Amino acid sequence: MIIKILGSGCKKCIALGENAKVAAAAAGKEAEIVKVTDFAEIAAYGVMSTPGLVVDEKVVSTGKVLTAEEIGRLL
Amino acid sequence: MSVFGWLNDQLLRMTWLNDLVGAGVAAIGLDPASRIGGSVQFFVYDVIKIFILLSVLIFAISYVQSHFPPERTRAMLGGRSGLGANTLAALLGTLTPFCSCSSIPLFIGFTAAGLPLAVTFSFLISSPLVDLASVILLASIFNWPIALAYVAVGLVVAVVGGTIIGRLGMEGQVAEFVRTVPVSGEAAILTRGERVTYARDQVVEIVHRVWPYVLIGVGIGAAIHNWVPADVISALLGQDKWWSVPVAVLVGVPMYADIFGTLPIAEALVGKGVGLGTVLAFMMAVTALSLPSLIMLKRVVRMPLLVTFTGVVTLGILSIGLIFNAISTWFI
Question: ipTM greater than 0.95, yes or no?
Answer without folding.
Answer: no
